[in-house]
Amino acid sequence: MTDGWDWRRPGSNPTAAGPPAGGPPTAPHGAGGGTTSPWWSDALADPWRDPYAPAAVVIPTAPAGAGPEPVTDPDAPGRPRLRQLLLIPLITALLAGSLGGALGYAFAVRGGAGGGVTLGARPAEAPGLAQRRPDSLAGVAEKVLPSVVTVRVAGLGGVSEGSGFIVSADGHVITNDHVVSGGTGKATVILNDGSTAPATVVGQDPESDIAVIKVNRTGLRPIEFGDSDALAVGDPVLAIGSPLSLANTVTAGIVSALDRTMQAGEPGGPVRYYAAIQTDAAVNHGNSGGPLVDSAGRVIGVNSTIKSLVAEGQEAGNIGLAFAIPINQAKRITQEIIGTGKARRTVIGAQVGGTGSATGGAGVRLATVEPSGPAAGAGLRSGDVILRLNGRPMTEPTDLIALVRKFAPGSVVTVEYRRGSTRRNTSVTLAADAK
Fold first, then answer.
1. Does domain 346-432 have CATH number 2.30.42.10?
2. Pfam families of this UniProt entry (predicted)?
3. pLDDT above 60 (res 339)
């Protein structure tokens, strides 16, 4: 195969050097006859167009046994690499996890029912008990409960059960006199954790309805004392104890009234006088002797008695009228019992004979006045009508007795009284009974 034109004379030697004789060929007639061929016109000036030099297209042969050269189509899909093989399932897993998490959250919020309707507001994070605010009701209960106990006393009439609260680290407990009265001087105390410990009666004051017992146990947590004189009507309170043998019971209410005077007592027993804190916290049998605490967890009263609508001899229950001995009075009596074995009784040095309504007004009439007593020293006489004691109106004889018992001996109180048609005022220094 040649590139160009290979013209030879018939019989000539193809390998002979030099140009062929006769000159360049001419085109045949009929195709521009007689003219010089264009293939020859520039042959002498073109070193690559030697008509006598053989030219050939050489195609190299493949080695023996070798296959054809591989051919790749750039538009054809390539074979997946290892990175691609790992990336695809990873992306798939992430997408599936995200979708599952979204669906799970949606079902958790909606509750999985209701046709996509969300019932209620989205709840806030609920704090655990350890996260309760100290001044919340739960925080106050958590603080006070370890100091509250159940008191059981065996007597001739069976087992008497009430409540109490620890007031010293060495085991002194305040309770009511009517919880331990009639017993043998021995008691059993059930602590907040359910454990029991023996106890002995240290002393009692029947008229104030306060008793002190001593628990034979160490590591006790005393309760914190508050100030009952600083209370106001409407202050929130908690009553804690074992009503109806239900230990560690907490009920809530408010201070309904202050200095609610009353007398109570069983037939043949001592007459008890209360100038009490009235509360609407639920108090039942078994709460007696337990603490009434304020919103800071400080004891401000000793739950002692309730009012009820039941008939005589029937079991009374809570109707929202409960009464507690003010803690300032209970603390003073407790200290005297621990120190001396008995409590002093505060007196005004006069006996009341009835109301003053017969003379045309309210108040409490003095029947007799002891010559050397506090009332006589303040200028009071028999027949005088006490109208107010420290600003508290007097309407019944019980009012004067209960309010006087509330104060410590040596306290000075103001007395407004009427003598005839004249109103007067005086100050009386109360004293302790000589008994």
1. yes
2. PDZ_2, Trypsin_2
3. yes
